[in-house]
Structure formats: C-alpha cells, structure tokens
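Structural prep section.
Before we set up the soaks we want a predicted structure of the protein with PPE in place, mainly to decide which crystallisation condition to try first. Input record follows.
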Amino acid sequence: MGMESQFIWKNGELVPYEQATLHFLTPALHYGAAVFEGIRSYNTPKGPAIFRLREHVERLFDSARVFGFREFPWTVEDVMKAHKDTVRANGFKDCYVRPLLYLDGGGWNLNVDNGKASLMIAVWEWGNYLGEEALAKGIRANVSSFTRHHVNATMTKAKVAGNYANSFLAKTESERLGFQEAIMLDPQGFVAECTGENLFVVRDGKIFTPSTAPVLEGITRHSLTTIANDLGYSVSEAPISRDQLYIADEVFVCGTAAECIGLSEIDFRKIGNGTTGPVTKKIQDVYHEAIRGKVKKYEAWCDLVG
Ligand code: PPE
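Run finished without errors. Recording the tokens verbatim:
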C-alpha cells in the first residue's frame, strides 16, 4: 500500500513527508498513548470534500479528553482547517485522512500530565479496506476468540491507539484462519463490533445494531442509520447474540475505511444468500452517492476542501 504524500501537517505547519518523524523515546510509541481518527475525503461535483469532518474532529477531541489530555493548543476549528489544508496541499481527490494526537516529550511514569500533546495529520490514497471484491460479494468473517474491551477497561468511546492491540489480536487470528474480518463479542457475550467496523443485522426487513455503550460511536454507523431510516427501514439498538448472526437474513459492517460491506459467511455458515443482501445493497448504494456529494439531502455531510 502506497502511503506516500507530499506533505504531513505537524503541530501547525505542513512539512515534507520525509520529515514527519518521531524520536524513539516518544512515550506514545511505548504505551500507545495517542488518540486518532480515520476520515475520508472524496471528490464531489463541487471538488474534494471531507466527509463529516466536524464530527470526526469532535470525536478526536472527545477521545483526547477521555484519555486524560487536559490541554491542547488547538480548537476544533483550527484542526478542521488543518485537515483541509493537508488534503488541499497534497492534491488528492479521494484519500484517507489520519490525524494522530500523541503524547510527546517527557510523558514517562504513565501520567498524561507529564507529557504534552502533539498532533500530526497524514493523507494517502487508500482503496477498499476489505478488498476489491468485498463490495459486491461480501466478506467471510469469524467470531473472534478474543473478547472486546470491557467498558471500564480501556474506554470504548475513545479511539486510543493502545486499544487497537485488541483489534490486532483478533484481526491477525482471523486472517490466519482464512477469514477477512473478526466479529468481537463483549465481555457479556453479546456482539460488540469488528476490529475496525460497527455491525448491523437485518431480519424480516428490520435492522438491528448493538447499543453504543460498549463500542465506538461510529460516524458511518450514524450515516447508515440515517440513510436506512430515510429509505423506510426501522433501525433499533438491541443486544445481539452470536446465533442471531447465524440466522440473520443479512449482516453488514461499516466504518470510514471499510465503508459498507456485507458479510457472506460467519463461522462457516452462509448468511442469507451468501452475498451482499438486498437491504445492504440499497443502503450501500445511497452511501456511495452520499459520500461523493451526489445526494442533495446529505450534502451537508461533505465539507468542501476549497
Ligand atoms: N469500530 C472500530 C473499532 C473502529 O476502529 C471503527 C473505525 C469503527 C467502529 C467505525 O467508525 P467510523 O469510521 O466512525 O464509522 N475504524 C477506523 C480505523 C481502521 C483502521 O484499520 O485503522 C476507520 O474505519 O477509519
């Protein structure tokens, strides 16, 4: 995967890609003491636009607050502008955008207050996260042998870098077993989310998703819920058991990187017709139009880079 770009935004200025480096003794690297976002910019009829930029930047700040950062020298508006500047400077039409707010200089002794916050923003061209065939055919998933975080362990609302050790365990196991994604259960045994996506189940024309309590409050989850409601589907939050996945008509997962992808098979059991189901397809189609600024009522989700 080519992650190169011309510039990376670092603490207030755009620096050449090669210069966005860190010292080995940056505490964030040793303890995962950093928070991040995954954002995408898409080309729209009015030019490149960052999808739901404000919501992502607000969640970045929320993650920082949850982790314990108390001071950072930027406002939400500053950081939104920094994202646009970075996308514009690199000239990409479609790209993934990755801000990371990390604990820098002097943060040893496991106390956030002993370090300071630094922020970098990178962009790169990133195609379909779950593979080129995933869109039409769906992907095969397993239920992970690893449990998702307990709500009072690592704080599931925050995209803390260190939290992703749990995702690494599950995703590596899943791919080594020959699947493409892992579904993780919460400590009570109910379906939580995937390693980098939220999850929805369709049964008898109704859509269900786990409550946000133990999972990341996905922005794509919110967008798809809005689209599904506008298409006339009811979407409710409900506890979902492992066997409810097996007997669902459709299961789909969503995230900024993955977008909206159906699951064709879970734990060697075919889901529905074993490909992207009809409800998933309808929602997926509208989402793909919406992110590219082609649906009037969702135009406000596309923040023009200018
Ligand atoms: N749950 C998790 C654990 C998660 O990481 C993501 C995003 C989501 C749900 C969906 O959130 P949202 O993007 O707001 O709809 N995962 C990001 C990082 C993936 C990665 O490999 O890194 C993403 O999709 O950008």
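Observations: The chain has two domains: 7-124, 133-290.
Flagged for discussion at group meeting.
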